[in-house]
Structures are given as structure tokens and as C-alpha cells.
Amino acid sequence: MRYQITGKQIDVGDALQTHVKTELGSVLEKYAGRPTDATVTFSKHAHEYMCEATVHLSTGLTAQAKAHSTEIYAAFDGCAEKMDKQLRRYKRRLKDHHKERQDPVELLGASSYILAPEAEEHEAEPDTLQPVIVAEMETKIPSLSVGEAVMQMELAGSPVLVFKNESKNGLNVVYRREDGNIGWIDPQA
Fold this sequence. Notes:
- The chain is α+β, with helices and mostly antiparallel strands.
- It folds into two domains: about 1-100, Double Stranded RNA Binding Domain (2-Layer Sandwich); about 105-185, Sigma 54 modulation/S30EA ribosomal protein, C-terminal domain (SHC Adaptor Protein, 2-Layer Sandwich).
- The chain is about 30% helix and about 40% strand.
- The strands form two sheets. The chain has a five-stranded mixed beta sheet. Strands 1-2-3-4 form a four-stranded mixed beta sheet.
- The radius of gyration is 19 Å and the shape is globular.
- The relative contact order is 0.11.
- It comes from Shimia marina.
- Required for dimerization of active 70S ribosomes into 100S ribosomes in stationary phase; 100S ribosomes are translationally inactive and sometimes present during exponential growth.
């Protein structure tokens, strides 16, 4: 497994890197069959350290966790606990997903855009209704079942996930509703 351990304006020493590799490795060994790579980023905001971890599994699923503390090791340990809890919660489904799927999840290429916020109310009317594109990036859309998409959205901690529905071969969306339930958008052909 490949590890990328970095710090944003923080020096990440060898001892911390070794601690991250052993602890995260033991968490992933229990639950995930074949993790491919892990990215762990440390940053500091005022007096607190923040740790963000993202793990990509060989099946195409991604798990993410964040934690913060006044000590850098405690921030990582909190992040590792959250990752452990997520993977433990989905262990059976990850194993089932792993058995049914012979090949990794198919990923489709797509463009992702970041748009500038709309002008303030007191400013003059814009000349055009077209939004200003701030950045353009390449993103991947996974080909999943609805159950796998919900699990992926939960593991990634994201509020919405666009995916290609394997059974209907069309683009679908799952999202977290304000009432706490999960919504699923399945457009008609």
C-alpha cells in the first residue's frame, strides 16, 4: 500500500510517519481486503492540529475521516478511530461487495467545475446570466449499484454522490436529505 503523509506548513517527522503507517495499516488490515493508497494530511489552525485521511480501496470505494486536537498524535489517533468506526460499520457490506465484484469499480471520466459566487445584491446587474468558472478539474464517476452508492457516500462523508447505475446504465444521484434520510434521483430515460 502506498502512503502519502504530508503537512500543510508543518514538518511531519519520521516518527509520526511511522506511527501513521503502523496504526492506519492495522485498522485497514482488519476491515479492508486490499487498500491501494492512503493520503494523510496534517494542518494547524490556531492552537489545534487537524488530521484528514483518505483511503482508496481496490474495489474503487473511498473512505475519509477528519479529526482535530491540541496534540498532533491525538489528532491522528482520533482520525484513525473514526476511520475504524466507519469501516467496522460497513465491514459486512464491504466483504459482500468484495465477493460479488470480480473487477474493480468502473470509473467514468467527467469534468468538474468550481463557480464563482453570485454578485451581492447591492452591486449592479450582471451583463450575462452565465456563471464565472473559477476552476475546471477532472473527476471520476463510479459505476455502482444504489446500495453501493449509499455506502460510498457514507464512507466518504459527502452530502451527495453522482454515480452510473449498473442496473439501468444511466446517471443517478443519492443525497442526504435535511430530515436525515437518503434521497435517490433516478431520471427517466
